[in-house]
Amino acid sequence: MNEWQLQKGNADLRCIAIVDDVPESQYLAPEFELFRQLFEDRGIKTIITDPQALTWRNGQLIHHSDVGDTNIDIVYNRITDFDLSEPKHTALHDAYVSGDVVVTPHPRAHALQANKQHLTRLSNGEILKEWGASEADRELLSGCIPPTHNVTPQNADELWAQRKNLFFKPISGFASKAAYRGDKLTKRVWNEILQGSWGSYIAQQIVPAGHRLVNVDGVATNLKFDVRAYVVFTYYGLTDSTINRRWSRLSGTDGSTYSEPKVAAFRQACHANCALQTRH
């Protein structure tokens, strides 16, 4: 609840809205419910809602439902329109800009910390040197961030020639949507990228995935994996890993997935983090 205290001080936190477009249809809808339970366990009323059920009026963001209207204090923002520029997000955008509701994560945080455009600069040693970054910091960043370039008409021919070593990603994209491995890229799709059909793109050097040998139904299987670290403010919260076959979440033969332990661990970490935030 650190963000609430930073923006609103000691004001009472009465209601949180978990907001996404058509939330009941989202793949991560069970996660929304998990967080609703987490917040309500702490005594905070929590609503899961579509942004079109919100209005901004008289300095208050309001949720409308058949049982009545509810004033919203915090929005846990799961919308992938990161700058809230789409017309259906106008009420939320205006309430956020006016400071009448706390939004997390918010558009400014995405612009500063999650915009893929930054990778073109953070992977450029000359730019980092101009910015005054130390040699040690430049070496650290070069070891973590693959060389990344904007896709432009000027470098299009060079990037196409090198495409087998590149991965192409839309700057405003998410969840691998409209992202392409260069060795799978067709000329038709490449032309659509150059025409800006899905917005601006970056080209990033491919980094081969790590592999683990895993027993799957009694068969030793070589699977790709990644490791992710979760940090809230300056507090380390959780490290997890996902093991994939062809980049799809590994499932058991009975249709179950291996996500349950991770969800349980994540909930425990969230509880611990909430307690830590309260103590500080």
Number of distinct helices: 10
CATH level 1 class label of the largest domain: Alpha Beta
Structural Rg: 22 Å
Instruction: Give the CA-based shape.
Output: globular
Q: Provide the CATH topology of the largest domain.
A: Rossmann fold
What are the low-pLDDT stretches, counting only 5+ consecutive residues below 50? Answer: 247-280
Identify the CATH architecture of the largest domain. 3-Layer(aba) Sandwich
Strand content: 25-35%
Order of strands across the biggest sheet? 2-1-6-7
Mean residue pLDDT: 86
Helices and strands: which structural class? alpha+beta
- Largest sheet at a glance? 4 strands, parallel
Q: How many beta-strand segments? A: 15
- Distance between the terminal alpha carbons, to the nearest Å? 10 Å
**Number of individual domains:** 3
Structure description:
It is a single chain. Helices cover 32% and strands 29% of the residues. By secondary structure, the protein is of the alpha+beta class. It folds into 3 domains: 2-113, Rossmann fold (3-Layer(aba) Sandwich); 118-205, 2-Layer Sandwich (Dna Ligase, domain 1), CATH 3.30.1490; 210-279, no CATH class. The strands form 4 sheets. Strands 2-1-6-7 form a 4-stranded parallel β-sheet, covered by helices on one side. It has a 4-stranded antiparallel β-sheet with strand order 8-11-9-10. Strands 12-13-14-15 form a 4-stranded antiparallel β-sheet. Helix 2 (29-41) packs parallel to helix 10 (259-279). 15% of the residues are buried. The model is unreliable at 247-280 (pLDDT under 50).
